[in-house]
Each structure stands twice: as C-alpha cells, then as structure tokens.
C-alpha cells in the first residue's frame, strides 16, 4: 500500500523533473539555421600562427574551440583585427579588450585582448572584413595575441554558451580531433574579400605643375600579395616588386623634369590584381627664359602707347605671365602682373622711364628682372 508521503514525494519528483526539462528548453540556444561564412579575422595576406589551440590551457570550458593567434613575422601588437562576418557590436569589455559581434540566429563571434576598439557603440554595424580593433594584451599582459572564437548562446546572449569548431572561407577546416592544443602551430593566412583598392595622397594634384619635389604616397586595402610601381608605364603583371607590401611612395624628382604618371599594381593575397594610376603631374624646376636687347624709345608728352617685348619661353610648364615695372627707377621692381608680353602705357609726364620685366612659369619658377626699354618723354 502506497502511503500519502510516498505519493507526495513522487509528485514532487515528477514536478521537479518537468521544471528542469522546461528550464533546459528555455536556456538551450536556438539552433543556428544558417551560420554565416567566416573569414579569418587577421589582416589579409599575413601569416598568423595558432599559439594555443582547442581544448588546452584556458580553452577547456565552454570556450573549448577558441584559438589564440599571433603574427608569424611581426609584433602582433596593434595589428588590425577584422570582423569574421557581417554583424553588429553586441558587447565591449574594456578589462579584457573583448568585442563580441552578434550575427543573428543566436550566433556570435568574440575577439579578445584588443589594445583598442574602433568603436564601442552597441549596435554598430560591421561588414565582413571591416577592422573592428587592434591586437594587444589586455587581460593577458606580456603576450600580445588575438583570442578568437565563434559560439551560440541562449536568447539573452549569455546563457548556454557553446563554442563551435571553426571553419574559414580561406579553406581552413579545424574540426575536433581530440587531445590538447588541437591545431596548435598551424599557420593561417587570411584572404581578401575583394579586389585590392589603391589610394593615393599627395600635395601635388593631377594635371598640376610643381617646382618642389612632392611625394606621392599610396596604400592598398584588401592587399597583402605585394605591389609594383613605375613611372609612365604599367609595371609587369607577373611578380610584385615588393612582396607583401601594403604601401609605398614615389617622388617627383625620381623621374626628373617633365610630365609624369605614376602607376601602381597591387596584388591581393589570393592573386587578384588592381592597376591604378596617379597623374599626370608636372615637375619643372627651370625658370622661364627671356632673351631681349634693351631698346630706347622717345615719346611726346601725354602720348599713350602699347609697349611690346619678346615673349619668354619655357618648354615644360609654359609661361604664365610677367611681373612688370614702369617707372623712373632703373632698378625698379613691382607686383604688377600681365599675362601677355605687352602693356598699354598711360600718358607719361616728361622724364625718363624704364620698362622692366620678370617672367613666371606655370610651376612657380621665376626669371630675373630685365630692362626691356628706356623711355624718354619730351
């Protein structure tokens, strides 16, 4: 015969079991129907090594499938870290330098030990490949590296977190293989997500002439495979002159005086190429030349006249005009400017006057003052 207390215990047990089942269903993360394709969060074209793999050291809990990554050929510190998939900033923790992106469907990616973030604005949208911060050693001082993982979680983003084995669009599949430090030592190189993009900056603008040795700087986004550069001709498309380079520069004086165009060919880590150009830009450091024999001209008082002198020459940037002085000083100078080699003189009072000219070119070079005429007004 079942006693009243026994029935009560059985009822309480059944009720507790039902509550536990319901709680587990609520806390269990919603299955990810379509997890986004992940790209490596490291800079394109750079080799990074797994210095701590799955299921070892600090990667033994819910974060079993985390990776610690460090540059093979660099300090790692302040290296740009990019979003592994399109998503929004869901969480930032300053103490450990952690950014968590939400990608929808209860799927998240986490980037830890950043030296600084690009933004801490919750909900800020990142496209796959966008830089979200820079590698550092927050929370793990002394060894700059990126701690990265992808995981699912409950509706609140925290409960029932479970990291997932990683697979990247670059072709790296890192499944569970058992043991400690799984995939440790493996070198991974991120790919570009689009053709390389070349950006130029310079104080020397295209179609302009300059008489100083300006520098033209250029940088490559979505690069990593290297670059080549050449003046006035497209560089060859077979092999980059500077493997692995992301930026460079050229100076106008490299080619000497003349009208020049800079060409840059950039390679992505996957072999894609972009050819870009800057220019033409003119470089001219030679002053214009004015060859003339001084003349003497006699005028009647109050007589207006157009004064003409030989044109200056400048084979590069061309002559922009002339500084002009007309007055009683045989060594006079002024800021009077005319664009043609002539001027209509006003009626002059009796006396002696000197017409002096200094040519200017379109690059800013100036010739010397020369006396074109001595004018005697009777």
Automatic annotation (TrEMBL):
Residues making up the signal peptide according to the UniProt record: none
GO molecular function: metalloendopeptidase activity
Record field: transmembrane: none
Highest taxon in the source lineage: Bacteria
Domain M23ase beta-sheet core: 77-154
InterPro entries (alphabetical): Cell_wall_metabolism_enzyme, Dup_hybrid_motif, FN3_dom, FN3_sf, Ig-like_fold, M23ase_b-sheet_dom
Name of the protein in question: Peptidase M23
UniProt organism field: Chloroflexus islandicus
